[in-house]
Design a protein that fits this description.
The protein is built from 14 helices and 5 strands. It is mainly alpha-helical. The chain folds into 2 domains: 205 residues, Rossmann fold; 103 residues, Tyrosyl-Transfer RNA Synthetase (Orthogonal Bundle), CATH 1.10.240. The strands form 2 sheets. It has a 3-stranded parallel beta sheet. A two-stranded parallel sheet has the order 4-5. Helix 1 links the parallel strand 1 and strand 2. Helix 4 crosses helix 7, helix 7 packs across helix 8 and helix 11 packs across helix 12. The structure holds adenosine-5'-tetraphosphate (AQP). Adenosine-5'-tetraphosphate binds next to helix 1.
Length: 342
């Protein structure tokens, strides 16, 4: 059976990177897979979260899933802390994963920064919890943005080591699904940095709940360069911008990639449309397509968050279903490990 698991942290505003890199793909996969979509609140607290804000953002991510088109009847939607098996398996994986593996994780280095000694130990073992999130359902495929690639490699290593250490064939070796036209959406202020919820500048990202005016203003003020937009020679045989172009003109590459992804067209088509034009033309067209794609979703999200009964009932139902799926797997693992269940 092909099973999808993926999640989003309720640690900040949902943004265009989350949408194009992850949530939009979650929606598309519902027809072909058995899908489990989680709001990973336990991951969120690896960095400080105000409790009331965390509750609010958990509802907001859930509303984002629903507004984007995830069907809670076919897919399972829940928040991680409601299913204890995630943390139970994470502890087992803390004892499987090697410290050397965790030391190589670039996300820990980025997030801990210079203050490594003061980072929470949860931030350090974050990838083990992520492996547990996925493997507690024996998920086979994980749709994510490009930034999660290294964590998924660790998930594969953990599964393999567990299977080898105990001489079992318990966990599948998961396949990352890093797909879509925009697997790494960059900041509007600095095309070399990922668009991120933790960026101190709200102008660096388009939030899914931004209204038309905010979207227009952010795109208008997005960093640009002084050259005209390029011709098709900057698109490689894989249909993506060449590395040279992305490095030389990161902002042009980012805005055009977002435009093509939102419009649902090939990058080469978007390049042809703007060849020889200036940023002003691109920004205007991008504003129109962003408002048209996000406007309805943002309004739906706000409506659902304001009347949270529906969102809460979806999370409750999802947690029950997730619990039922995870329970036999955690029991199997406990038996393999040798935990007595008297
Ligand atoms: N910029 C991005 N481009 C493409 N995909 C992205 N994702 C995140 N940023 C981008 C994908 O969204 C999913 C959820 O990621 P997360 O839970 O790590 O969400 P986040 O905390 O909102 O990620 P951010 O914004 O990058 O926050 P930071 O880095 O501040 O924690 C994942 O599939 C991710 O790949």
């Amino acid at each position: 059976m092909k099973r999808i698991f993926s999640g989003v942290q309720p640690s900040g505003n949902l943004h265009l990177g989350n949408y194009l890199g992850a949530i939009r793909n979650f929606v598309a996969l519902q027809n072909d897979f058995d899908c489990i979509y989680c709001v990973v609140d336990q991951h969120a607290i690896t960095l400080w979260q105000e409790p009331e804000v965390l509750r609010q953002r958990t509802r907001e991510v859930t509303a984002g899933y629903l507004a984007a088109g995830i069907d809670p009847k076919t897919s399972v939607i829940f928040n991680q802390s409601q299913v204890a098996a995630h943390s139970q398996l994470a502890w087992v994986f803390n004892c499987v994963a090697r410290i050397g593996w965790l030391n190589r994780m670039t996300q820990f280095k980025d997030k801990a920064g210079k203050n490594r000694e003061k980072a929470s130990s949860g931030l350090y073992v974050y990838p083990n919890l992520m492996a547990a999130d996925i493997l507690v359902y024996k998920a086979t495929h994980v749709p994510v943005g490009e930034d999660q690639k290294q964590h998924l490699e660790l998930t594969r290593d953990v599964a393999q080591k567990f299977n080898n250490d105990y001489g079992v064939d318990c966990f599948p070796i998961v396949e990352p699904l890093i797909q879509g036209a925009a697997t790494r959406v960059m900041s509007l202020r600095d095309g070399a940095k990922k668009m991120s919820s933790s960026d101190a500048s709200d102008a660096a990202r388009i939030n899914m709940t931004d209204d038309a005016d905010a979207v227009a203003k952010k795109i208008r003020r997005a960093t640009s360069d002084s050259e005209f937009l390029p011709d098709a020679s900057v698109v490689g045989p894989d249909g993506q911008f060449t590395a040279e172009f992305r490095q030389a003109r990161p902002e042009a590459a980012n805005l055009m990639t977002i435009f093509a992804a939102l419009k649902g067209e090939e990058l080469s088509q978007a390049v042809a449309e703007f060849e020889g034009k200036g940023f002003a033309d691109l920004k205007k067209a991008l504003t129109d397509v962003a408002v048209a794609s996000l406007g309805h979703m943002g309004a739906e999200m706000k409506r659902m968050v304001n009347d949270s009964h529906y969102v809460d009932s979806v999370l409750r139902d999802g947690a029950e279903r997730a619990q039922a799926l995870a329970e036999p797997i955690i029991k199997e693992v406990y038996d393999i490990v040798g935990f007595l269940r008297p």
